[in-house]
Specification:
single chain; 325 residues; alpha+beta; Endonuclease I-creI; 3 domains; 5-stranded antiparallel sheet; 44% helix; 16% strand
Length: 325
């Protein structure tokens, strides 16, 4: 099979599914780098993927070659999958060959840093078959991304990769490795679509208060925000304050998130997918005991505190307004 046909198979599958390359990688539950090796024809297609592509695209392929176990020796390579039988081109390449040579990752002990990492993953993270990724805003969260990289290095003693999204203001922090992804499942995360699987906060987080606070910080830093709250009265007075907001489509996660806060003595409000932490004493306590690792949130809070704060003002514009938050 020529390189042109191999590329056409990959490209046609992408068009058939109406996704980009990243979406096609998620469809086959592989890393984007592995898919790139295939559609750039830098690696041969595994037999299983080849068969799925043909079935998906409906392209008729003739004169394809099923290579035997020792094909690589002819070019000076080594027989890396002697125990796995025949395959199409790369001896089932990334799939079977990778399993025996997959890098080992030790499972870290529970710690404050690990709990914060889990919170980050629950917020903006994702686990696939061969890697984990955390997606952040390039313009506003680059500094926070550097913090996460250092956190990962402390917890796992590895240095992740950074990938800038080509057509969006986002970047990804990635760690590749089948065994690393499996470790994430052991720690309580889920693989694939988090919402579809109704993901939840791992039970071990609630074992210690220090874990609870660190996990909450990670979740608020990624999927939460600091906002200005306004309550207007008909008499023209305007009450200004600061709040913390979080949102998730998983009812299990929202319930557990509220329980974590309440276990610390906070009074929170949850309505469907929306979580609110309000009140001067509670917000001040949050910033003192839990705080922000994301400089975007910290800067926003400090700006609101300096220029907005908890105040009551008379506003002519509010005389005819209905009370609202």
């Amino acid at each position: 099979m020529s390189k042109e046909i191999q590329y056409q198979l990959c490209f046609s599958a992408r068009e058939k599914l109406e996704v980009n390359w990243a979406g096609l990688a998620r469809y086959f539950q592989i890393s984007s780098s592995t898919l790139a090796n295939w559609y750039k024809c830098e690696r041969f297609l595994p037999q299983e993927i080849f068969s799925n592509l043909v079935k998906l695209t409906g392209i008729s392929i003739q004169n394809s070659t099923l290579l035997n176990d020792n094909w690589g020796r002819a070019k000076g390579g080594r027989n890396s999958v002697a125990e796995h039988g025949k395959s199409f081109w790369t001896l089932e390449g990334s799939r079977k060959g990778g399993r025996n040579s997959a890098k080992k990752f030790s499972l870290p002990e529970y710690s404050k840093d690990l709990a914060e990492f889990i919170g980050i993953m629950l917020g903006d993270g994702g686990v696939s078959r061969g890697q984990i990724s955390i997606t952040l805003g390039y313009t506003t969260e680059w500094e926070y991304g550097q913090y996460i990289i250092k956190l990962i290095n402390r917890v796992f003693n590895i240095k992740p990769s950074i990938y800038k999204e080509l057509y969006s203001d986002a970047f990804k922090i990635r760690i590749s490795g089948v065994n690393f992804a499996k470790n994430m499942l052991t720690l309580g995360l889920v693989m694939g679509n988090k919402i579809a699987q109704q993901f939840d906060i791992p039970a071990w987080i609630s074992e210690k208060e220090v874990y609870i606070k660190a996990c909450i910080r990670g979740m608020i830093d990624t999927d939460g925000c600091v906002y200005r709250k306004i309550r207007r009265e008909r008499n023209g007075w305007e009450y200004r304050s600061i709040g913390i907001y979080f949102k998730s489509a998983s009812p299990y996660l929202m319930r557990s998130f509220g329980l974590l806060f309440r276990s610390l003595g906070f009074k929170v409000s949850i309505s469907g997918r929306n979580f609110y932490l309000c009140g001067k004493e509670q917000i001040l306590r949050y910033t003192k005991e839990i705080g922000f690792s994301n400089s975007k949130h910290l800067g926003r809070y400090q700006n609101f505190l300096q220029n907005y704060g908890w105040i009551k003002v008379k506003s002519e514009n509010c005389l005819n307004c209905s009370p609202q938050v």
